From TrEMBL:
PROSITE patterns: GNAT. This is Putative acetyltransferase. The lineage of its organism: Bacteria, Bacillati, Actinomycetota, Actinomycetes, Kitasatosporales. The keyword Acyltransferase applies. GO terms for molecular function: acyltransferase activity, transferring groups other than amino-acyl groups. InterPro entries: AcTrfase_GNAT_prd, Acyl_CoA_acyltransferase, GNAT_dom, YpeA/RimI_acetyltransf. Pfam families: Acetyltransf_1 (PF00583). It comes from Streptomyces chartreusis NRRL 3882. Residues 1-26 are annotated as: Disordered. CDD domains: NAT_SF. Keywords: Acyltransferase, Transferase.
Length: 171
């Protein structure tokens, strides 16, 4: 399979490149055991209505450590992304979260682009995700990366009142 060009998911005129991070030491890496408390903090900030419990985050760490990327600066986490391994060429973006004080700086885009490149390298030909149809920021990000909706909103996808729109991207 040919390598995916690093600029495949480039920024458009409507979506300028992100501002530089607060420091030069910000980097994406796989999660480590000592990250779990910070991961819980970021997830709670990103999803205050329905955050993952520490128990679930611990299980993700134990079972999917290589598929859980964090954006860290050496002292704190600022974002994370959890993906699934390809099954029949399809992978799922299971969660993407950015700390409240670091939003709208391109960190979610950086995490998505890195994850999409890794998925492609692992043999995924398609990435899918479920997004709250009211989350305009997420819809804008995913749309700018080339994700497209698969039909209409799925009512109660994650339970009562938890509607989702399914999106997909061919890699």
């Amino acid at each position: 399979m040919p390598a995916l060009p690093r600029d495949r998911f480039s920024w458009s005129a409507d979506s300028p490149p992100p501002l530089p991070p607060h420091g030069s030491s910000l980097r994406i890496r796989t999660v480590q055991g000592e990250d779990l408390a910070e991961l819980e903090r970021v997830d709670t900030e990103a999803f205050p209505k329905n955050p993952y419990s520490y128990l679930v985050l611990r299980q993700f760490f134990d079972a999917h450590r290589d598929d859980l990327l964090v954006l860290a600066d050496g002292s704190a986490l600022h974002g994370y992304i959890l993906v699934s391994r390809p099954v029949n060429g399809c992978s799922w973006i299971l969660s993407l979260g950015v700390a409240r004080d670091r939003r709208r700086q391109g960190l979610g885009r950086q995490l998505m682009v890195e994850a999409l490149h890794r998925l492609h390298a692992d043999g995924a030909g398609e990435a899918r995700l479920a997004v709250d149809p009211a989350n305009e920021a997420a819809l804008g990000l995913y749309g700018s990366l080339g994700f497209v909706a698969e039909g209409k909103v799925h009512k109660d996808y994650y339970g009562p009142g938890e509607d989702r729109l399914l999106l997909r991207l061919l890699l």
